[in-house]
Task: structure prediction
Amino acid sequence: MKHAIYPGSFDPVTYGHIDVIRRAANMFDDLTVCIMDNKAKTPLFSVEERAKMLRKVLKNIPNVHVDTYSGLLMDYAREIDCHIAVRGLRAVTDFEYELQIAHANRTISGGWLDTIFITSSMEFAYLSSSVVKEIASFGGDISQCVPPEIEEEVIRKMKQVHPEYYPECP
Ligand code: PNS
Result:
């Protein structure tokens, strides 16, 4: 059985992630979407909140499962006996970072963990969780970036963090 992991922060999941997930799910028998820590980022949503959102938007893709892990991707891959990681590439700027991480994972795992890249669809090449949070933090419209149920959660969170941009209706 062909099994792959799609690791990421998913803070929150965007249409760009979902595009990569759908396409990877067509290539593998089983795809595990795993929420992991990126030490360079301070997440807006807790791991549990992110997992709940991912499960909600991915519930109709039967061969996709959502998991969470705190630790190295390589260790998680060994634990679930999976040796392929999938990552999305939007632009050349992603490539440099992704190439380095792919080499690091392959090296520290003693060749166990390979990474394959899926290029993002053109329409989502601009999209990232950070862009979503930036737009939403100023009260902007994120409906083109995330599914409606995720938009709802982002707005709920932003109302707490940036209430000045979300005045209550009288
Ligand atoms: O969505 P992101 O933030 O680009 O995802 C990055 C992530 C979470 C996949 C990456 O930071 C990661 O793999 N974190 C777990 C720790 C690890 O294994 N790092 C790679 C070894 S250098």
Remarks:
- Helices lie at 15-27, 47-58, 73-79, 92-108, 129-137, 148-161.
